[in-house]
Amino acid sequence: MRRFLVLSFIGLVAALALPANSVPLPGPFNDPEEACDLQSLSPAAAHVPVIDPEDKIFIDVFLLADRNITQARAATILAGAKESYEPLGLTLRVRGAKKVEFKGTGAFDLIDQARDLFPDGERPAGTDAVLLLTSADIEAAPVGKAVAGLAACVGGVGSPSRAFLVAEDPGENTAFRVGPAKTYDNIPAKILAHEPGHLLGVHHHYANCVEGIPSEADEGEVSACTLMTNFANVISINFGTLESAVARGYAEEYARP
């Protein structure tokens, strides 16, 4: 997910004024993430699954806490990220955790170091993904340090060696205020929620800048765009309709026991 750290008031007003029939954001964005080389890029998602929040699917994860991230801090951020998935009937469930001290800031290098922890460079048996949370200011071509998280590939939940991600914890004081409203808030949880969305097949251009607003209105949040947009200033905690269908479809195909 790319960080877009400068947001003008005019840009904010324009985002809020988008019509209700707004289409997903255009793409691609020169993203570091690429689609996984899977036989089917849109497995069960192709039939647009009916999402029943009571029909629970667990996304079992192994959580790595890198450098200045304590396991307690990682668990707290993950608890916030879970909010994105509950309306989809998906639950991020920790199946293992480990404190690590990785080297460097390259996102792909960090993912490789995470792979090296496990036999054959694959996610541990009984898990769907490995989530690496780091205090490092990560970077990846072609966007340099303007990246806050990276999934090994879009759709990685279907590939044991590609079901890895890295997410950055930028700290608590991230809110950006415009008068009585705020944006760019709760960003550590949003980053950690965003990246598993990629592993579940969701691209940035599936996002839109209408459905994000209702999810945070009660908190004075004006983050207009849904979870999978790559502009962090206007990212909300919730998936949009298209994002939800794809993520649920991948979960049904690859994560359901």
Provide an overview of this structure:
The protein has 257 residues and is an alpha/beta fold. The protein has one domain (9-17, 54-254): Collagenase (Catalytic Domain). Helices cover 23% and strands 16% of the residues. It has five helices and seven strands, in the order H-E-H-E-H-E-E-E-E-E-H-H. The protein has helices spanning 9-16, 71-85, 107-115, 187-199, 241-254, and strands at 57-66, 90-100, 129-134, 149-151, 164-168, 176-178, 181-183. The chain has a five-stranded mixed beta sheet with strand order 2-1-3-5-4, sandwiched between helices. It has a two-stranded antiparallel sheet with strand order 6-7. A hairpin with a 2-residue loop joins strand 6 and strand 7. Helix 2 (71-85) crosses helix 4 (187-199). The longest helix has 15 residues, at 71-85. Residues 2-28 have low confidence and may be disordered.
Topology:
Elements: H1 9-16, E1 57-66, H2 71-85, E2 90-100, H3 107-115, E3 129-134, E4 149-151, E5 164-168, E6 176-178, E7 181-183, H4 187-199, H5 241-254
Parallel strand pairs: 1-2, 1-3, 3-5
Antiparallel strand pairs: 4-5, 6-7
